[in-house]
Write a structure and sequence with these properties.
The protein is mainly alpha-helical and 150 residues long. 76% of the residues lie in helices and 0% in strands. Helix 1 packs antiparallel against helix 6 (135-149). The longest helix has 34 residues, at 54-87.
Length: 150
């Protein structure tokens, strides 16, 4: 069995995975940047729950920030683990990439579609769609890795 690392063209797959890791970092930092600048998330919560006071809005924003940060850190670890598996030539690297991609797609779909108690999408759409961005290089990496497997 030919090792994955010795397959030609894996540098492209690795570059795509590093790009995905960078996009994951950007998506992970976005709630913090939002809190310091545009407050899109706080505005979204305020619109959906007009009776909420500042404390309740801050609590909701903090909860979303913690959730998105946790998902982002786990996603970054997934990228780094997959990069390691490809670089060291593990034959199961393509399966790991596929599983990580499937998990990321499920989480991204949840980020843009899950409704809150008020019937609106729970996460501000801008932040939800930022969670989708790392899935694009994820798909490309999976396709490249499986093509290299032939």
């Amino acid at each position: 069995m030919t090792k994955l690392a010795s397959k030609p063209g894996n540098q492209v797959a690795l570059a795509v995975m590093y790009a995905g890791a960078v996009l994951t970092v950007i998506a992970t930092l976005s709630p913090f940047i939002d809190q310091a600048t545009t407050t899109v998330l706080a505005g979204h919560v305020r619109e959906g729950y007009p009776a909420y006071g500042p404390g309740e809005i801050n609590a909701a924003v903090t909860a979303y920030t913690v959730i998105l940060s946790t998902v982002g850190v786990l996603g970054l670890l997934g990228w780094l683990g997959t990069v390691w598996a490809v670089r060291t030539g593990k034959g199961w690297a393509r399966w790991l990439a596929t599983g990580m991609f499937a998990t990321a797609v499920c989480l991204a779909i949840a980020a843009v579609t899950v409704q809150d108690n008020n019937g609106e999408v729970g996460l501000a759409p801008l932040l939800g769609w930022l969670q989708v961005l790392p899935c694009v290089p994820g798909l490309a990496a999976v396709v490249l890795l499986w093509r290299r497997a032939r």
